[in-house]
Amino acid sequence: MDVIYTPEQTQFLIDNIQKNKDLNDSFSVFMYKEIREDLPRLYDLLGTKYIRQNKLENALVSFYKINQPYLSRFYTMWEEKNNVFDKNPFYHLKYTPKFITPKDTILLNKYTITKQLLTYLKKAENTNEIDRDYYYFLVANAYYNMGHEGNVSMMRRIKTWSRYSLSFIEDEAEFRQSILAKKYYLLAKQHAKTDKFKALCLSMLIRCENHTLSYKYFEDEHFQFSKIDSPLAINQYYKELHEDYHDFFDDLVSSCDNFESYFNARR
Tell me, what DSSP letter sits at residue 137? Predict the structure, then answer.
């Protein structure tokens, strides 16, 4: 179901269970006895499928129907560690020191993250909002963190996934390449008011582009990312940072410890 079923097929199954779960004849009891207990899991799967299609409103409705005991049981440290919501995806990046002071604190789960993402998207797309660059950056962080190097990859993946082989899940290209993150980092850069913040956006775009280049390793057996002599020759954002923001180049490529000062230079 995780790989093959469409959201519509998953919803059909849920509707069928809801319609027939209280039937008491022997066949219905046999048919629905166990699967009726899986409704929270099915709503989780349905919402995850909508996230994969970037249908956030539909995902929000599905995640809202998951009961709290399921969320607490399935997404805690008592389960496999890949399922733990322990870092806010809008403000924290894996392997990166904290560099953004959170303005909003939420209890982290699939519902609250989806709701917050919709809120920030609405702010970012509001032409009267003076901090559009800020909200686009937070949105980009969330999409980045839903990918294979993110801290909320479980927004897109129900089970443990392999770093070394591709799956047949419909959003595998997005999961591996951070395409939506790239889109929103570009919009953050477009609406940025200072060169230092634009340079920081480029640093994140370099990461996203490296994901795209690495993805080619899976798709093209002749492509070897490790044998590229210079990232300047292949990563367009690395080249742009080097040529157009040269004064900040060493700061940003030598260490991500400098991210905080560049983010705080947004205004």
Answer: H
